[in-house]
Amino acid sequence: MVTISSTASAVxxxxxxxxxxxxxxxxxxGLYQLHKLRDELGLDVVVLEKGDGIGGTWxxxxxxxxxxxxxxxxxxxxxxxxxxxxxxxxxxxxEHPEIRKYLNFVADRLxxxxxxxxxxEVVSASFDDTTNMWxxxxxxxxxxxxxxxxxxxxxxxxxxxxxxxxxxNFKGQWYHTGLWxxxxxxxxxxxxxxxGTGSTGIQAAPALAQQAKHxxxxxxxxxxxxxxxxxxxSADDIKHTRETYDDIWRQARAGTNGHPFSxxxxxxxxxxxxxxxxxxxxxxxxxxxxxxxSFSDILQDVKxxxxxxxxxxxxxxEVVENPxxxxxxxxxxHGFATKRPPIDTGYFETFNRENVQLVxxxxxxxxxxxxxxxxxxxxxxxxxxxxxxxxxxxLTGALVNLNIAGSGGHKLKDAWSAGPRTYLGLQxxxxxxxxxxxxxxxxxxxxxxPIAIEQHVDWITNCIREMRAKGxxxxxxxxxxxxxxxxxxxxxxxxxxLPMASSSWYLGANVPGKPRVFMPYAGGFARYTSICDDVAQxxxxxxxxx
Length: 546
Ligand code: N01
Fold this sequence. Notes:
Largest sheet: 9 strands, mixed
Shape: globular
Number of strands: 21
Bound molecules: 3-acetylpyridine adenine dinucleotide
């Protein structure tokens, strides 16, 4: 690392620091990217991390019930045999502290922490066309520069707190699940109101109901959920997993969603009703996201989807004792898995508890937050604590908030004003040498994230390696290739039922005013990987390099 004094008056006190690459974020993606660029290419790299610890998503999301929805044995890195064989998970779905422990274990093994600056928030970044360098400003006034800027900020890290009138008058406390206090929140004896019933709300409600005196769940859109069937991982399971990891990763990379299980090849409509119900029943008992792999066309054919949706609707009816509440909890406005399917531990059962109440915001919308709680069009609900499980400005929010200005001062915010425009989710025209790990336009959130992250980091690393070998200084996505890719992302989404869920955050629908554009690439992980590989082999087709 070279350190030179800055002559700019605004930063006269700060050293100016020059690197080969700056990575923003120290979660799964930032850690692996640091390892690859530093330890494989020998580059001078720094990671800037806003939090006071590593972990990214898992550093911030500490709400009661927070755990991973992918199974632990494959929600981890695959790139290092020693790490893979040395680590063991305790539960089928790891809780947030265990995932942080894992990421710290990896970071310590690979000695990553010495190149991570914690508590360092990036507030803006700009590209200099004359030097082909990025300049990055931090909240504390540091200015760093690098040839390459790589964002590893996560897809779900910019929290969405709805602007409810009167929130400032509330006399109790309020929290967003994605910024949960690290010391925890004492819910004992408290009346808690939870807004939101997405994956987070569905994980949180059972835990909140157990801890609080009373829980009121404010539901805008009823959701499907499959039981997680969490439990301890046995010594035999660990042994078997360690012995079969090569196959596990091969299968994960060959599939649609980066999970090591394959989608059934049978149509839901090709089997008699009784047999279909048996298959769903087995999948329900087994639990987890694998339910959606029961048939090949659950996300392709409305009638096939109806069979899965109806099965879950029936389960809700069986589990929830009060028929009126069961009815309120039953989704009718979208098909199963057209929004990200949650998995749960006792979610629907929670509404059988005496200390839990459900409010249907479609029937009685929120009017305001009062000093004492939440007032809907029908009544005031008195609360001590409000929990916003209201999701994120997904996929684009965290990137736009970095205030990035590319070639000629062009702002990312403007480039994406009508929705994100990327080439392969990796680059945006007029933002040379900027790579976005799991950016919009890549499979990202439709995948098991560590697998998607590794593929992106490997591609970016190979790209930089090749540029350095050829003495190239600048790479930029071409506008025409980007237009074509945006069309391909739309076509891939339109070949599925995913765009039909009008309240989905995949479409940006949860954030008022956000353009309605289907953001992740839905053509499948294996297909996406082969496109990226082909582009690289074809002399980085669609990118301009000099
Ligand atoms: O967010 P969401 P999330 N008034 O956007 C409601 C990942 N994840 O944090 O559907 C009232 O899905 C909103 O209602 P509606 C996973 O990828 C992973 O739950 O827009 N309600 C919805 O019910 C997941 O999909 C894991 O009508 C309002 C809820 O808030 C993603 O994170 C665990 C509202 C938001 O649901 C996001 O899930 C948890 C308003 N103004 C999450 N605004 C693991 O794997 C929003 N809502 C660990």
